Amino acid sequence: MITRRSSSHRSLMTSAAVVAMILLLLAIVVTATTQNDEVTTAAHHHKPASPRRSLMIDPAHKMQHKNDDDDILEFDDDDNGDNDADTKVSVQIYIEALCIDSKNYMLDEVVPTMESPLAAVMDLQIVVFGNSKLDTAARTVTCQHGAAECDADVYQQCAINNFIYPSRYVPFLACLFDTLPMGHAETPYDTSYFVQCAVHAALDFRALAACHAKDAWAMQVQAAALTPADHDHVPWVVIEGVYVDEDDAHLSEFICQALARKGASHAYCSTP
Questions:
Q1: Where does this one sit in the cell (predicted)?
Q2: CB burial class (10 A; 0-12, 13-18, 19+) of residue 174?
Q3: Is the C-alpha dihedral spanning 105, 110, 111, 115 positive or negative?
Q4: Considering the entire predicted model, what is its pTM?
């Protein structure tokens, strides 16, 4: 005897086939979308990657450096002994935003010194202008590494002016040096670089953006005036008013030497 399938059975089979077809089409669409996203991401190479360093500021204005092992190191403004004006060491560092030597000095010398107890005796000033040329008549600036550097210089100088304390602005500068491509570039980098680093350093990007939009010329004029006319390279490092060759010693050693000349000392300086 031949058993005939009921119409309801055939209807169920048809419904199952339709569902299977829909699922197959959805899988094809998802795969194509994923591939398109990968291509788009690869094409936008001017967008920032996540910084290797995680530099954060806590509510007490201590600057923290989070390394790849997630250990927290503090850039501390707290006192480490007698830190009156006589035992402070003035340090001026002149840099450019897209200069590889400036990047190396900031990340290899300034950041470690800020992480050390010597931060409490260092009266640090950073100026971002370097070898740029100012034309006051035309109100233009020509930067060594192109227009993108001028743009980044302004963001960095705005951070320095708006947030004043090195424990606030150094994490922002360090983040940018860690993420911005160094070298010559004419097209300014995507704003997301600066937003990301402002968030990273717990700075209000709205204040930076307002300064960048309204005070760019003033920031560059100010930085040019602060930059020594006799400098011939960057980074240009001045300790207690005297130029020092940054290749002769670590920044921490220069600070310890300056303390000794003042007849002062710091426990960190005697650490092997």
A1: Secreted
A2: buried
A3: positive
A4: 0.73
